């Protein structure tokens, strides 16, 4: 058809004289062109409407794409923030686990220290019980020593009073003998043999001198200081008791001898034989006996004062040990209370760690589920965007 039109135009332009058939063909061609133009003009508003609809749809797709891009950026930012928070949570969990391990190691060390302290307390208790037993034994020994001292002092006082009474009686007998001698010299001037009197004087002087030597040779009290005071005092007191008993026996024996001598003198006086004992020897003997027993009483008094001082020292030591034991008991109670608080704190920390761990695990699980759902939505939106892009490209092409 277009070829016919072109040939017609060439004929019209090239030649002016055409046949009438050609004119009819040209008319038909023009009519066809007019019809086609009318058809095309009738299609123009439809195409315009389709173009505007497509353009509006394209704009809508662009808006949807922009919204999807914005949602994608928001999801990516949320993903980054969730990753950051996840890293923080993992760091926090690691720190809490490290603190828990440190607390466990610290509690182990503290329990070891408590066990060491309990062992020390047990040793101190044993030592204190031993000290208490020793002090009780020393106190009982001191009480026994005091009782023995008091008994010995009473015995010595009785012996001294008895000796003094014997001495006074002997002095009275001497005075009687002196008066008898003076009377005998008056009444029996020729009945005495001077040699016999000298022999009797020598015999009685020797016996009295031997008695004085025996009294002077009595064992003395050991005043040396010893290290173990309680046992040393007890031993010394036992030795002193034996010595005093021996000396008492000797004095009783001497008293018996003196009584026998007195009886012999009385018998001799009855038969007319009078022996004279000088009073100076008796006074000297009395002074020696008194000095000996005074020294003995002084030594016993010094022993008693020494025992009292030792008892005071031990009582002070017991008081100090009691104070130390009270302090150790207070330290033990404080350490046990501290151990209980540390144990409760550990239990609370473990519970808190457990709860935080469970909460973190639940949060992480919910976050992972949320992230998975976001990934699914993002993937779906991306697929929709790809489909829209493809449709838009296909429409625009």
Automatic annotation (TrEMBL):
Alphabetic keyword roster: Coiled coil
Keyword Cytoplasm appears in the UniProt entry:
no
Coiled-coil stretches noted in the UniProt entry, renumbered to this chain: 58-106, 139-166, 234-268, 332-391
Q: Where is the Protein phosphatase 1 regulatory subunit 21 N-terminal domain?
A: 32-128
Task: List, alphabetically, the InterPro entries matched.
Answer: PPP1R21, PPP1R21_C, PPP1R21_N
Tell me which domain of life the UniProt entry assigns to the organism this sequence originates from: Eukaryota
| UniProt protein name | Protein phosphatase 1 regulatory subunit 21 N-terminal domain-containing protein
Question: To which species is this protein native?
Answer: Ranatra chinensis
């Amino acid at each position: 058809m277009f070829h016919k039109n072109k040939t017609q135009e060439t004929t019209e332009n090239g030649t002016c004289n055409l046949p009438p058939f050609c004119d009819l063909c040209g008319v038909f061609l023009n009519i066809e062109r007019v019809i086609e133009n009318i058809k095309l003009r009738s299609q123009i508003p439809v195409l315009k409407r389709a173009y505007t609809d497509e353009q509006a749809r394209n704009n809508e797709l662009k808006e949807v794409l922009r919204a999807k891009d914005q949602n994608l950026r928001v999801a990516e930012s949320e993903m980054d923030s969730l990753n950051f928070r996840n890293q923080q949570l993992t760091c926090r969990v690691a720190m809490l686990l490290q603190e828990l391990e440190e607390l466990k190691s610290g509690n182990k060390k503290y329990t070891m220290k408590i066990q060491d302290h309990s062992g020390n307390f047990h040793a101190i208790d044993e030592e204190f019980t031993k000290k208490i037993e020793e002090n009780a034994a020393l106190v009982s020994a001191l009480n026994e020593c005091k009782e023995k001292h008091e008994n010995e002092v009473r015995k010595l006082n009785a012996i001294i009073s008895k000796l003094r009474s014997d001495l006074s009686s002997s002095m009275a007998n001497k005075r009687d003998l002196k008066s008898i001698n003076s009377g005998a010299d008056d009444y029996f001037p020729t009945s005495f043999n001077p040699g016999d009197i000298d022999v009797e004087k020598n015999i009685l002087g020797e016996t009295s001198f031997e008695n004085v030597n025996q009294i002077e040779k009595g064992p003395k009290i050991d005043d040396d200081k010893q290290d173990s005071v309680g046992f040393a005092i007890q031993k010394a007191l036992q030795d002193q008791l034996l010595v005093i008993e021996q000396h008492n026996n000797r004095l009783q024996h001497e008293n018996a001898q003196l009584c026998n001598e007195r009886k012999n003198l009385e018998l001799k006086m009855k038969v007319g034989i009078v022996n004279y004992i000088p009073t100076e020897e008796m006074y000297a003997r009395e002074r020696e006996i008194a000095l000996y027993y005074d020294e003995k009483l002084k030594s016993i008094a010094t022993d008693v004062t020494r025992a009292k001082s030792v008892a005071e020292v031990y009582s002070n030591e017991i008081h100090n040990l009691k104070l130390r034991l009270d302090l150790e008991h207070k330290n033990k109670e404080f350490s046990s209370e501290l151990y209980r608080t540390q144990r409760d704190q550990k239990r609370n920390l473990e519970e808190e760690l457990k709860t935080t761990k469970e909460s973190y695990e639940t949060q992480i699980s919910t976050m992972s589920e949320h992230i998975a759902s976001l990934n699914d939505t993002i993937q779906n939106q991306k697929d929709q965007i790809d489909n829209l892009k493809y449709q838009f490209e296909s429409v625009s092409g």
